[in-house]
Automatic annotation (TrEMBL):
It comes from Mycolicibacterium madagascariense. InterPro entries: ADH-like_C, ADH-like_N, ER, GroES-like_sf, NAD(P)-bd_dom_sf, Zn-ADH-like_protein. GO terms for molecular function: oxidoreductase activity. The lineage of its organism: Bacteria, Bacillati, Actinomycetota, Actinomycetes, Mycobacteriales. This is NADPH:quinone oxidoreductase. Residues 10-323 form the Enoyl reductase (ER) domain.
Length: 326
C-alpha cells in the first residue's frame, strides 16, 4: 500500500484534536480516484469534531466533505477521465487527504476559470443554496431575499447566486459591520446588523417585508424572521449555527400566509437520483462564463486544518475556508 498525508480526528473534543497523519491511500474500486489539491471546510466539519452532527463517523476519521483536484483514474463509463480538473463531494468525511475515491455521480468537471482553491469551496454551499432557492424556496424573478449569517459560507453563496436566479434585491444580516463589508463584497444590495434586523428590514422594504429568508443560523432570530416575511413569503430552514433549534407557533404561518420550509440538501439528493447532475447543469455555465464569480477563499495549509475548522466554530471565519493539500 502507498501512504498519503491526511488529517484525522481521533477523538470528539473539537477541532483542536485534528492531527496530520500518514495513512494508506484509498483504492478506487468502482470510484473515481482524485489527487486532491484543496479541500473545503464547512460548518458540519466543526459539529462533527464534537459528535454534534447527524452524520457520526467512526473514529478515527478524516474530516471534510468536498475537494478539488485532478482525476488520477476513472471507470471506463464515467463522465470524467484521468487528467481532468474536477470538484467532488466526499459527503461528509474523507476530503482532507492527498487522495480520495468518490463515486462518479459526485464528481464534476471544474471550469478552467475556477482555481482549485476556489473549486474546493464551491459545491457544498452553492448546491445547498441552489436546493434552497430553486428547488425548495421557489424563488421567483423580482423577489427580495434576506440571508442570515451573510458573511459565512452559505451566506456569501446566497448573495452570489440569488441575483443570477432572479432576485431583485438581497438583504444581508451580519453580527458586525466588518462582516457586513464581506457581505457587500459578495453582492448584497443592503446590509443590516443582526441586532434589531426586523425593524431595519421593515424600514428598507417600506413595511412590506421580504419574499424569502435564507436561515442557516436559527436560534432566537427565527420569530423575527417570520415577522419579516411579506404575504406568500418563505422562510428556508438551512441550519442552526446559533445553537438553538427554534420552535414555530404555527398561527404565525396562518395569519400572514407564510411558509417555513425545510431544506435538507443531502437528503434531497439521496432521494432524487440525478439531482446533483441537474444542479450542476444550472450552476456550471454561471461559473464558466463568470456571470457568478467563484471567489478565492481563505486558505490554510493542511497541517493547520484544526485551526481552519475552529475558525467556523469560533465565528471568526468570513467567506469560505479551505485547506491546501498540494
Ligand atoms: N440544510 C442543508 O442541507 C445544509 C447544507 C450545508 C450547510 N448547512 C448548514 O448551514 C449552516 C451554515 O454553514 P456555513 O458553512 O455557512 O457556516 P459558516 O461559514 O460558519 O457561517 C455561519 C454564520 O453563522 C453565524 N452565526 C451566528 N451565530 C453563530 C454562532 N454561535 N457560532 C458560529 N456562527 C454563528 C455567523 O455569522 P454572524 O457572526 O454574522 O452572525 C457565521 O458567519 C450550518 O449550520 C450548516 O450545518 C445546511
Amino acid at each position: 500500500m502507498v501512504s498519503m498525508r491526511a488529517i484525522q480526528i481521533p477523538r470528539l473534543d473539537g477541532p483542536g484534536a485534528a492531527e496530520l497523519v500518514e495513512i494508506d491511500e484509498p483504492s478506487p474500486g468502482q470510484d473515481v480516484l482524485i489527487d486532491v489539491y484543496a479541500a473545503g471546510v464547512a460548518f458540519p466539519d466543526a459539529l462533527q469534531t464534537r459528535g454534534l452532527y447527524q452524520h457520526r463517523p467512526e473514529l478515527p476519521y478524516v474530516p471534510g466533505a468536498e475537494v478539488a483536484g485532478v482525476v488520477r483514474s476513472a471507470p471506463a463509463d464515467a463522465h470524467v477521465s484521468a487528467g481532468d480538473r474536477v470538484a467532488a463531494l466526499t459527503m461528509f468525511t474523507g476530503a482532507m487527504a492527498e487522495v480520495v475515491a468518490v463515486p462518479a455521480d459526485r464528481v464534476f468537471a471544474l471550469p478552467d476559470a475556477v482555481s482549485f482553491t476556489a473549486g474546493a469551496g464551491l459545491l457544498f454551499n452553492d448546491l445547498t443554496v441552489h436546493c434552497a432557492l430553486r428547488t425548495r424556496g421557489r424563488l421567483a424573478p423580482g423577489e427580495t431575499v434576506l440571508v442570515h449569517g451573510a458573511a459565512g459560507g452559505i451566506g456569501t453563496s446566497t448573495l452570489r447566486l440569488a441575483k443570477a436566479w432572479g432576485a431583485a434585491r438581497t438583504i444581508a444580516v451580519t453580527s458586525t459591520p466588518e462582516k457586513g463589508d464581506v457581505a457587500r463584497a459578495a453582492g448584497a444590495t443592503d446590509v443590516v446588523l443582526a441586532d434589531g434586523f426586523k425593524d431595519a428590514v421593515k424600514e428598507l422594504t417600506d413595511g412590506r417585508g421580504v419574499d424569502v429568508v435564507v436561515d442557516p443560523v436559527g436560534g432566537d432570530r427565527f420569530t423575527d424572521s417570520l415577522r419579516s416575511l411579506a404575504a406568500g413569503g418563505r422562510l428556508l430552514v438551512i441550519g442552526f449555527t446559533g445553537g438553538d433549534i427554534p420552535t414555530v407557533k404555527v398561527n404565525r404561518l396562518l395569519l400572514n400566509n407564510v411558509d417555513a420550509v425545510g431544506v435538507g440538501w443531502g437528503a434531497w439528493a439521496a432521494t432524487h437520483p440525478g439531482y446533483l447532475a441537474e444542479q450542476w447543469r444550472e450552476l456550471e455555465p454561471l461559473l464558466a462564463s463568470g456571470v457568478v464569480a467563484a471567489p478565492e477563499p481563505v486558505v490554510h495549509p493542511l497541517e493547520r486544518a484544526g485551526e481552519a475548522i475552529a475558525s467556523l466554530e469560533d465565528r471568526s471565519a468570513t467567506g469560505k475556508v479551505v485547506v491546501a493539500v498540494r
